[in-house]
Structures are given as structure tokens and as C-alpha cells.
Design brief:
It contains eight helices and two strands; from the N terminus they run αααααββααα. By secondary structure, it is of the alpha+beta class. It has a two-stranded antiparallel sheet.
Amino acid sequence: MAGGRPSEFNRIWNNEDGLLRIAGWARDGLTNEQIAENMGIGLSTLYEWQKRYTEFADALKTNKEIVDRHVENALLKRALGYEHVECTYEADEETGEMRITKRITKQIVPDTTAQIFWLKNRKPEDWRDKQQIEHSGEVNIAQTLKAAQERAKT
């Protein structure tokens, strides 16, 4: 703040409306790059402001966590399968009000792709594609080759 001039953050964003807009962008799932672009600043400035202004860092972090939880819950629901009720509405002939005429409970089957994604990320030691296997014994190549040749003769 040269000469006591307020920073751009304090002038434009450090108020209820500014922080609410930032929080909304984070909740909408925007990346830091997109948020910086919306704010008209560079990504390095965004990171600097996160270090300098606690209220700004909190608005981003808290609201990103909210949307992350929603996505996690949706992924888990999709992985496990679920039921949902589908309703058909028609207008009442006399009153014109919409009323439910049919309810159908639909079963959404578990999604194996969601299950695989979940397990590979939550339990990588058991589910990653590449397993690390340690061998503590000794392998004698000459002896193994000799045994294979003996079996080939018979």
C-alpha cells in the first residue's frame, strides 16, 4: 500500500458483496484460474491475496469444500445405486392446479465405473492398477534354467 492507498483487494473485493461473489464462484466449481479471470487479476495475485487476506482464503476454501462434498456424495450415491420417485403431473380440469397423477419408484443400479473410481482413489493400496510386489527370496537363474531343460528332455 504505497502512500496509504488501499489495495485493489480492499477497495473492490473486501466487502460483503465482493466476498459473496468470490464464494459463489468457488461453490459453482470454478478453478482458481477462472476465479482470477473473473476478478480481473492474475493467478499469482490470487495466490498472494490468499496468503495475505484470511477472509479471502476462507471464502475460497470453505466454499470449494462444500461443492467437493456434494460431488463426493453424488459419486458415492451413484456407486452404490439408489431409488428415486418420478412423478407425473397434470392440471386439474376444474381448478387448473397441477396435481400428481402417477408416482413411480425407479431403481438406479450401482455404477461400476463410479465404484472403480472411488476405490482407486480411496483405497489405492488395494485397488490401483499397478501393484507393488516385494520379493524377499532368492532366484537362481542357472538352477531354474537347468530344471527347465531337464523337464523339456522328458
